[in-house]
Amino acid sequence: MPSALLTLSPSRNSSTPDWFRTRSDAAWTEFQSLPLPGLKDEHWRYSNAKKIDLETHAPAQKPSAEQSQAALAATQGLKERAARFVFVNDTLVESETSDLPAGVVCVSFAEALKTHEDVLKQHFLKGDLPLGSSKFAALHLAHVKAGSVIIVPKNVVIEKPVEIFHWVVGDHAAIFPHTLVVAQDNAQVSVVDHYRSLEGEGGLSIAIADLVGGSGSKITYAACQELADDAQALHMSSITAGRDASVKSFQVQLGAAFSRSESVSDLVGEGARSDMLSVSMPIGDQVVDQRTLQRHKAPRATSDLLYKNALYGKSRSVFSGLIIVDEGAHYTDAYQTCRNLVNSEEAEANSMPGLEINADQVKCSHGATSGPIPDEELFYLKARGIPDQESRKLIVEGFLSDVIERFGNSEVLDTLVARIDEKLERAV
Fold this sequence. Notes:
Order of helices and strands: HHEHEEEHHHEEEEEEEEEEEEEEEEEHHH
Number of helices: 9
Shape: globular
Largest sheet: 11 strands, mixed
Oligomer: single chain
Number of strands: 21
């Protein structure tokens, strides 16, 4: 029997603005009309859209008081933060915004619909999603009701990160979080999204983040996916970097049976910079699917992508990345690197980097490597009395460390390293 996710039109309350209700209804119609990507779809090469099992899921139900309290008790994040939101099944259960500078808007998505319609109309899901998941993006828009909207005024610097937790609870519950970050000219902000499971089987998260950097602004964003081992995740991000803006995004994939990330970075202003980082560590039968696009639309912009995957068991990783340099985007610097450390003979890593250059005076490069832990590195550590299992763990930590260190926030780094160590204990 089909689930409510496929058959029932999403409901909106009477306070929902007409413009948003119109977009939501149109998205539902689009979702129903679009086919599920097939095996011949180039954007799903080496992957399978049927891994996102829509037929068995339904929109998550409002959590009970006990479930909310359990999620809050399990929410252990940063000690130093400017604000924190905790959502359980797309329901806001905690909001803490007392440590923000004056003028900063940091509200739930539902509140932003009431108080900041102009910003949502201008920036919410305005970027195209060309990497193969238009059907899932339409489903997200049809159901979205939770998430955070952060607007940082000109010249304002938020010293501490904004931290957001998205918990899913219940059998085959689906959530649709959305994060919108707008940093106006010369503003600075860091945001960390966490996606986690509390209890239940086979949760689903279809999340989207819109990151918009004005002239001279600086955005640092991390999405940490740590859902249950039988969950599924499809997370998309859209980056727009204006003149001399810098946007650093970090994808951490540690959970879910199947996880797919799609990241599009548009450098629309001269001198813009985009750093796209990712760490994944699939074990068992986990599949990590990564698709990226670096689009240079203005001259003298820089993009630098570094993705690293450490694979165990029968796990699989897929990376497909493309750099496009538009006509007139001269003096572009663009780099793309994907490296896979394969720790099992049964693990499989597929990498497909690509370039499309339509301008002069550019520096572009791409590359991908896959291989096991080098014997000489293991020999070096074991010759110094370090056991085999501990040696392998140290080598994997070192393999991932340069990506993590490039993210930059020391407390966030410590938190990520601790979570990676926890998974390494299960893997090695």
